[in-house]
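Give me structure tokens for this 273-residue protein.
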Amino acid sequence: MNASIPVLARFDHVSLAFDTADGPLRVVDDVTYDICNGDFVSVIGPSGCGKTTMMSMLAGFQQPTGGAVTFEDRPIVGPGPERGVIFQEYGVFPWLTVKDNIAFGLELNANRVSAKERNDICDHYLGLMGLTEFANAYPKHLSGGMRQRLAIARAYAVKPKFLLMDEPFGALDAQTRSNMQNLLLRVLAAEGKTVMLITHSVDEAIYLSSRIIVVTARPARIKQIIDIKFAYPRHEAIQELPEFGELRKTIRELVMSEYRAQQAQIRPPSFSE
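Here you go.
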């Protein structure tokens, strides 16, 4: 991480616990790391480890019970237009056309622009995402990959500084997922954004990221932070390089060791229960 690049988001000894009938349930425990302007950071770890909870705190959907999550040196107290969020479930409005979905955020008070500028922005992202001919279609008429392109276009249209992506390609088939990864890299090269990606895919994390944060089984702690040295722009050919394979092996073992630890925490029911 280059010390001259400004920090955009910071987790400073962050913990989060929920009250339950059996006492506090620790989900995130003493997590500290920075995300700098222009970073593409992937967070990876076993299912249920607290990855999405970390993203939710940065999005402003949840508040830490210890430590602080800040954006541009200010505590995050709720959602904000400078932080766009894309979920696995696409997050598009089925009752709006493709173009109206993209325009939606531009009609809200926080991002309101003139009708002409709104139309120009919509046309720009329709073209960038290859959706121009579907401008008047409804999401139900789009494929999964096209709906995800629409979700990205809608998030980008309001010009957030930071893009938060929670398993955005997890529901897609392998070929569509690969195409979406390449599209995201092209859009990032054209538009520039800081990104936090939650993913279960080691290959996806390596291919897209400048840094990978491997977290432990719940409660989520930092297990290791790995800098990815491949230069941008990236092409699929790097996935065939020996260095890529070595990284894949290393990160998979880190994740699987935490998966095994997670499984060991699960007490099998006794026959009397």
